[in-house]
Design a protein that fits this description.
By secondary structure, the protein is of the alpha/beta class. It has 15 helices and 22 strands. The chain folds into three domains: 165 residues, Alpha-D-Glucose-1,6-Bisphosphate, Chain A, domain 3 (3-Layer(aba) Sandwich), CATH 3.40.120; 226 residues, Alpha-D-Glucose-1,6-Bisphosphate, subunit A, domain 3 (Alpha-D-Glucose-1,6-Bisphosphate, Chain A, domain 3, 3-Layer(aba) Sandwich), CATH 3.40.120; 101 residues, TATA-Binding Protein (2-Layer Sandwich).
């Protein structure tokens, strides 16, 4: 593979590609050869970063349930081993568990590798890397792929990997989460502190099935009605993705059908989650941020919550006027919100939570790690406490105003230099809004417009996609009929951009 081929595998701070045939028009580009070279490159990169020889490095490697995982794992292990690294195979794992393998005393690896493509279809796969500082940055992935291009596949492929150590990381990780629940409830495991609670889990055949038999059941919870717990990388029931409508409908149905106190759904590698309340109401996007913030607020009064740019004015009201916290809307991208959270805390601003509407949520108390299972633990503790005092989990967010009307519109850019054209559109869009006297609150991404008049109430956000030649526009109206009025305003502000397809607004 050429350097150009390898660099095309970069997806922000991860590596993503097509690992299997089966989807028309999608050619395999995440090959065993690529992973062989990437494994060797990570060995070199980590050696430079830690200033330790590769022979003195230990790296853990895990994977989710995708069927392409074992072959890609073997290739990565060969690449690492050929460069002298001691590799520990962790088998079926989660992305947060692979980071925690650097923290746990029983493992304390120098670095770790997770083979996953998150919620993407069965034919995709990818690689995430961690070191002691957390997940790698965009520039680090670029450097690793450039190093991979210089790797010799022949040398890497000749090494034997039959004697690699194996370690059951999920058992250690599950014990860590059980302990967090017991600590939160001031109880011992033997007391079965979740007795009396019914919690159903939908794993979508990803890697989160352990949450039922290694965490909830040992602590006494009734998990009957949980579904799709067996790992199956073809995802025969639904995509393991809390943002997918079919997936959310599946866990809503299971929660109501089984009269559960709480429903939980995870993505494939368990760094994201969402929830369903006992009445079947889904808790995602703004609502899940509100719920986690409400759980944290008593211990972090006046603190700052960082979110991505598409959160609503409803959430700002709830965070600031109800919980008396501060809301900082930042940029899309889970690494962006987490890095902002780290920056704020380092500067002395208490920031316990950074969370995207996608369900990526990082807690300061948990190594700034976006861990869906840990967020679920916080909810379970809050549920048990609420039930003990005769309340419900729903009561924590009862003052969050309901969503009335919303729309998301994606405008394709036909210009060859789509980033430059998108920047021109944003500049002109902002200029036109200023001339109309429209309020523009502080914003770190795109252009956000706020409407608080009697005629129309709501907001509009126009921004560039992180990777694609697309400009998404999110609109939310506070009252019935406001969405249509806001769409008409957006149409007026977007007239005349010939290489921007806004036909979806009509």
């Amino acid at each position: 593979m050429t350097e150009q081929d390898l660099l095309k595998l970069q997806n922000g701070s991860d590596i993503r590609g097509i690992a299997l045939d089966g989807v028309e028009g999608e050619r395999i580009n995440l090959t065993e050869e690529a992973c062989l070279k990437i494994g060797g490159a990570f060995a070199q990169w980590l050696s430079r970063k830690t200033k330790k020889s590769a022979q003195n490095l230990t790296v853990g490697i895990g994977r989710d349930s995708r069927v392409s995982g074992p072959a890609l794992e073997n290739a990565l292990v060969k690449g690492l081993s050929a460069n002298g690294v001691r590799v520990v195979r962790c088998g079926m794992a989660t992305t947060p568990a692979m980071f925690m393998s650097i923290v746990f005393e029983k493992t304390h690896f120098d670095g770790s590798v997770m083979i996953t493509a998150s919620h993407l279809p069965f034919n995709r796969n990818g690689v995430k890397f961690f070191d002691a500082d957390g997940g790698l940055e965009h520039k680090d992935i670029t450097e690793i792929l450039e190093l991979a291009a210089a790797q010799g596949a022949e040398k890497n492929n000749s090494v034997s990997i039959s004697d690699c150590q194996e370690f059951n990381l999920i058992d250690v990780y599950a014990a860590h989460l059980r302990n967090a629940i017991c600590t939160g409830l001031n109880a011992a495991e033997s007391e079965k502190p979740l007795s009396g609670l019914k919690i159903v889990v939908d794993s979508g055949n990803g890697a989160s099935g352990f949450f039922v038999d290694k965490i909830l059941q040992p602590l006494g919870a009734d998990t009957s009605g949980s579904q799709f717990l067996e790992p199956d990388g073809m995802f025969p029931n639904h995509i393991p993705n809390p943002e997918n409508k079919a997936a959310m409908q599946a866990i809503q149905n299971a929660t109501v059908r089984n009269n559960a106190d709480l429903g939980l759904i995870f993505d494939t590698d368990v760094d994201r989650m969402s929830a369903v309340l006992s009445n079947g109401e889904e808790v995602n996007r703004d609502a899940i941020i509100a719920l986690v913030a409400a759980i944290l607020a008593p211990d972090c009064p006046g603190s700052t919550i960082v979110t991505d740019s598409v959160t609503s004015d409803r959430l700002t009201y709830f965070l600031e006027d109800v919980l008396h916290l501060k809301h900082l809307r930042y940029m899309r991208g889970y690494k962006n919100v987490i890095n902002k959270q780290k920056e704020l805390n380092a500067a002395g601003t208490v920031c316990p939570l950074a969370m995207e509407t996608s369900g990526h949520g990082a807690l300061k108390e948990n190594y700034f790690l976006d861990d869906g299972a840990y967020l679920a633990v916080k909810m379970i503790v809050a549920l048990a406490q609420a039930k003990k005092s005769g309340k419900s989990l729903e009561s924590l967010i009862e003052k969050l105003p309901p969503l009335v009307e919303e729309g998301e519109y994606r405008f394709k850019i036909a210009a060859s230099d789509f980033k430059e054209y998108g920047a021109q559109v944003l500049a002109e869009f902002k200029s036109r809004a200023e001339k109309e006297g429209i309020v523009m609150p502080q914003n770190f991404e795109g252009v956000r417009l706020s409407f608080k008049g009697e005629d129309v109430r709501g907001w509009i956000l126009l921004r560039m996609s992180l990777h694609d030649p697309v400009m998404p526009m999110n609109i939310e109206g506070e009252r019935p009929g406001d969405l249509e009025k806001l769409v008409q305003i957006a149409q007026k502000l977007l007239r005349g951009f010939e290489q921007l397809d806004t036909s979806c607004l009509k």
